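Project standup — Tuesday

K.O.: blocked on the structure for the chain from last sprint. Re-posting the sequence here as requested.
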Amino acid sequence: MGRLKAAPRRPNGCPGAASPLARWFARVWQNTFPHLPRPVLEHRFHPVRRWRFDLAWPELQIAVEIDGGQFVKGRHLQPRGFQADCEKLNAAALHGWSVLRYTTRDVQTRTVQIVEETAILVRRGGPCPGHR
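H.V.: unblocked you, prediction finished:
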């Protein structure tokens, strides 16, 4: 693999579209682990709610969420946004999902490390041996 370019910064995008950082993560994933399953971008995981994961491996029930706005008082840090995130991630856990949660800065500064952390779960095939 050649030298990685810097991770993109997210502009204000349209709802439902994969963020530049999620697409960046997916590209780094593919370059680093071409033999492992590819993530699905913007996977809708809940049977009723319209919740989506930034990246997911649906067959393994593993997801990655990239939370932005920590340094500009964004949605994830506002009381309603934080409460909504809690509800979404708790529902995901109750439906058997393992969710790794990272910040924008994580993806921008340590992409390879977080991709490798995610690969640990994917290689195991889920949360932990014997969990299912």
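K.O.: great, moving the ticket to review. The CA atoms of residues 61 and 97 lie 5 Å apart. The first helix runs from residue 20 to 32.
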